[in-house]
Structures are given as C-alpha cells and as structure tokens.
Write the structure tokens for this entry.
Amino acid sequence: MDFSRGSHAKCNVSSFILLRWAGVCKGKSALALAQMGDQDDVAKVLEGFGGAGVVELIKDDAGGTYRAVYTMKFVEAVFVLHCFQKKSRSGVATPTADMDIIRARLKVAEALARELRNAKTNH
C-alpha cells in the first residue's frame, strides 16, 4: 500500500514545506514528538474521528494557511495522512474533499499498521 498512488495523491511544494516545518517547537518537530508518544502544543485533535487519534498542525503565513494531518492511533508508526493549503478564507472547518482524503488514508494506515503488527508477530 502506498499513499503516493491513486486519485487522492497530491504532492506540491506547499505540502513539502509544511512537512518540513511540521510544527517545530522547542527544537523538535511535532512529528518527532509524536513518534516519541508526545504531542506538540500546536497540535490539535481533528474533529470527526472519535478521539485524539487524528491530529492536525496548522501553519499560517503570508502565503496562506497550511495544514498537516497525522495519526498516532497505531503503536507501529505515526502516519502522515494529508498535507494541504486551506484555500477557503471563511471558516475554520476542514473542507469536505480534504476530510474524504484523510478518511481514505486513515483506512490505508490501519491496514498498513495491521501488516506491520502481523509481520512483527510472525518473525
């Protein structure tokens, strides 16, 4: 399974910059903190996923608002589900199309985590 394939695949410079930024705070990125089981102060639970398993980072700058969404739901890995620039100037809600991508990729992450878990127990 590969997040880079399929109709939901979309990689651009803004996404790369956001991933590189990834909420740098106190010398560690938010993703590095997540890998250690911690959560950055800039990380917020993304509503609509039934708990703290799906988290978003929001970065505002002169070029717009950028978001990275990841999950810490699985002990096997932290999965980055989606990075995008929020285009809408009104409201703070995540657009439906982006939520659909996040849901689809969360299912892929769940299957990948299961594969990793099974591979670990079979060795």
